[in-house]
Amino acid sequence: MKKWISFVSVLCLLTGYCQADEGMWIPMLLKKYNIEDMQKKGFRLTAEDVYDINKASLKDAVVGLGREGSPFHHFCTGEFISAEGLLVTNHHCSFDMIQSHSSLEHNYLRDGFWARERSEELANPGITVSVLVRMEDVTEQIMSQLEEGLSMQERNRRIDSISGVLERRATEGSNLQANIRPYFNGNQFFMSVFRIFRDVRLAGAPASAIGKFGGDTDNWMWPRHTGDFSVLRVYADENNEPAGYSEKNRPYRPASFFKISAQGIKEGDFTMIFGYPGTTNEYLPSHAIRQLTEVENPHKIAIRTAKLNVMNEAMDRSELTRIKYAAKAAGVANAWKKWQGEIKGLKRFHTIGNKEKQEAEFAKWAEGHKRYEGITERYRDLYARRENLIRAYVYASEAGLRGAEIVGLAEKVRSRVSKSVEKKEQAACKEGLHQEIAAFFKNYDVETDRRILAEMLRLYNANLPAEWIPEEVGKARQTEDYGQYAAELFKKSSFATPQGAEVVWGDCDEKALRRIEKDPVTRLASSIREFMLHRILPELMEIERELKNENRIWLAGLMEMNPEKVYYADANSTLRVAYGKVGGYSPADGVNYTYYTTLTGIMEKDRPEIYDYNIPQALRDVYARKDFGPYTQNGEVPVCFVANNHTTGGNSGSPVLNADGHLIGINFDRAWEGVMSDMQYDPEICRNIAVDIRYVLFVIDKVAGAGHLLNEMEIIR
Ligand code: ARG
Ligand code: GLU
After folding, report:
1. At residue 15, does pLDDT exceed 80?
2. Residue nearest (by alpha carbon) to ligand 2 atom 4
3. 223 Cβ below 6 A of ligand 1
């Protein structure tokens, strides 16, 4: 079995004849490249039904969630499910919004929240929802101004300035916003034009014990039982156009919204995902994969393991610490777990070996193609130069500036006060810092952070040669007792308590700045920052620029070498279509997973004493009454299902659609064994995980008692 899988992968890499299902496709190009294949696999709609700029199409129902200031950087996807602006996404995508509305009296995070009427929906300033109006291939306009042989800097400068002009021209006199992105490693450029809404309200969210059921224990895992959804509503002005929050705004009427299919799904069904995948790296050379799996990921994992050990122990000991650290630990654990899966997957599928074969083949072909000669050697040399730098970078960031929180705090306060001194904005500085410090200490435990600092200093010194260790970090080594050293720092630092911190920043003036700069934690932070700025970043960034240039040439060469293969562009936070089929998988020899889970499975996991598996009583009651309504398949309430759509981070909240383009689920995760799909996808083992839309309806209707929302939806039963 394993041998056969890797044979498929090799075949795919060498010849380009992949067993499709792989890929994240550009919606405006479906007609050209994918629609026939999609229809052959069962899709019953046309390319125009999915993407059309002259009439309503499915694309009008898919949105990117962003933030004011960076609206094109979509952190999640969402989709309209009613004519009145009702939108669904994941619980973990709205987590910050739910948390911001929560207090001890209204603990929406713990208990859930459901607006009984529209006036109760809660505004979320700063959150944006972008709806794609159209896309345009602007490769020609840009490329025609870039002759070969330009320096990299000049090339980038020109791309930026031409893009700026094109973006302005495309949106002049309208309230649209445009964004041009490189595709295919910078060999092509597409512009996306959006309508960006700024009045986004929370309409409902289940209790965390449903929306985050299984927590970090089950994160990235199948079988899964998480009801990872939340409900938002987008508001617009009286002309149905974007506007900032106003009581006068009305629910947005989208050009189209998804009908919901409650008819069920079965193994092998066609399925498609429409959303905003963030980043993938499918065309990296073998040297990159080696460095990632042997250097970068292992060190990042080691650092985070140390952090998590401290946090988990503290959370087990104190309920208060659990409240303070749950979200932080989840953030640390999410990528930590994914990196481990990634290493395993890349090894299991022999990605390095496969890529080496491909590179050898390429080198032979490139002998007659001067532009592409010697690229593998250049990659080898660049990655060799990069190794020490990337390791040092990982420590300076993960173990240093983002290690113990007190280090980050000192760094933030120092930079704020120094800016205030420079620009004479004391009042704003004082107010800003006051709030920041209050927020910081609300979720802070000194003892835990002190232990984290000790661990960070220990790892930093143990795992790097002296020349890569910033001076103040190195000092800890001499004492030979990191716990003692960290304790001393905390004792001498004013940043360890809110009172101390208030005294230190004082008036945001020069005197305060001098005091801050003398603080031992500031000295540690500054030492790491300076090392980063002067010893690591200049060369590392130069190498990254050169790599980017090689990546562009490399992919252009691959495409030229395999003219018959249809390539897809790496994810770049723009709208994409992935398609495949519903189905379980075999994660290991002798193990087979089915494609869906049920409410009975949730009940089997019920363990009130374990935080991640404590089910809300309301759900237990409904289960005991067997009050399942129409939301069943074979007498069970389905909860989650898996399919082999090619997805990545950012696809959270994406609509999972059936052959008719109806909503059957909301995407929220991938299965651990296949997370290497960001670098190498394999249809046998890569699975996206979705919450079944019938479970979403069941929770809204039967558990939350918010059935009125269902009246707005078009549900096909
Ligand atoms: N793994 C999913 C993602 O990458 C879900 C993360 C949120 N859930 C959690 N238990 N931390 O976003
Ligand atoms: N949970 C991820 C997200 O927030 C999706 C999982 C993945 O990486 O595929 O986007």
Report:
1. no
2. 652
3. no
